[in-house]
Amino acid sequence: MDVVRLTLALLAKRHLDKADEVEASGPEGFEFGSKPSPYALFEDMPAHREQHDKGWITAIQSTFKELMKHLPEDARVSPGEATNIACRANSESHLFLDTFDRGYNEVIGVFPLSSMYFNHSCDPNCVYVGLPDGRLEIRTLYDVPKGAELSVSYVDLLQPREQRRRQLLLTRHFWCKCRRCSMPLSKSEDRFMDGILCRKCRRGVMIFEETKEVSDIDELMRDIEALNNEIQGKSAMCESCATEMPVTELVDVLKGAIEAYGSAFIALRERRNADAKAGFDEFLKKYDQKQVLHPYNSYLINAYIGLMQLGQMMDEPALSLTSGRQVVDRMSKSGALSPNSPELARYQAMLGRLYISVAKKKEEIPRQTPATKGLIRRYRIDGKGWIELAYNARYVALGQSHPLTVQLQQLSQTLLPRPPQAATPGPVAEAANSSGSNSADAAVAESSLEAAKKAKAKENKKPTIAQLQQTVKAAAAAAAAANGNNEEKQQE
Ligand SMILES: [Zn+2]
Ligand SMILES: [Zn+2]
After folding, report:
1. Fewest beta carbons less than 10 Å away: which of 6, 73, 90, 290?
2. How high is the pLDDT of residue 481?
3. Does the reported pTM lie above 0.85?
4. Could you name the domain of life of the organism this protein comes from (predicted)?
5. CA–CA distance, 349 with 346 (Å, rounded to integer)
6. If you average pLDDT over every residue of the chain, what do you get?
């Protein structure tokens, strides 16, 4: 659907450019940042048509056959050409966070120049940022040492290694060999992403190292069959107590979990809220409370995200709050995302807002016991803490003047722990510099909040990952631009 929409937008752009006779002069004569890239630049990008799934191609082709009837005559192209454009859009488009927070997770766009300069990594040091005027900015997530290659991620990083690799193979036509993907599973945060707990100690993850490389989709399909044969008789071992378990049994556990999660997720997408809630509850009861999956397993985290959304849709703030705490806590501890990552900041901001709204609701209660008053104060402090943490992350990842950053700064300034005569005199002007210097607040804040802050402080000082230190050749100019943007302020 996104690709169809994007292809239509590209056709419109092509039509308009043709009318204005805009031509690409190539990156040399091209003025950066002043105007959108002309359509001609997009035409130079590879379409990888033969590497797309055949069923997908057929569906796209017949969709465009129908859609062309509705376009103005001089803007029409053949379904075959439209499909080429769709393939190119599918291979070269980028997803990034919606600038205006309209409730979409992501928006999509094609940026020919950025594709030339930035490689993918599942442990990226940069992030795509959509600006309100439709431009794309690339910002570093932490201090990147001189000479390190700048990378961005083309996929959701909170998913198992094999899933990311398959997605990259299907959409980008390469088998990811980034630092995170090449590390032994036992040493990587990826062991959690589809991690199953040891039946004996219920602490360690069962590890089965799998190092197959595939180069195209046909091979991937063949590989799935081969893999089924290959795991017969093999064992996985607990990282903690060395207990062994047949891999086939682990595969069955995971299949069951994915199925249970999947049906709840479909219910959520179809807005069958009660079914979705029942589905997620059951899934968590079976796989989280009974300690079958590792707490940082991406399906568990995604189930809590589902419940967090359901709590909001069903007007059950308590459900949202308890699920939101799980989301933020597990997401940050899993190590799958950088502490400044916009995804994490998004959930931190949501959690902060939830705390504040629950506090406000409680304040409406006419006669408050001292216990209620204490709770309200605590919720306000926690809410403010999460908002500030999210604000600090966005300051780095999205930039000081980005609408989503400004939104949190304004919110943070209105948030004072009640009663206001307590520790903080005057408005919270220090919000920009500190989330930890206000000792009265920090002392009361929850431990996971503290842990998150510490993790982030550590990350900001993180030295380079040795493997990233391949010198950038072509990206020198782009690197300078991205670093320049970030110099305006690095946390602290
Ligand atoms: Zn990777
Ligand atoms: Zn064990």
Report:
1. 73
2. 38
3. no
4. Eukaryota
5. 5
6. 79
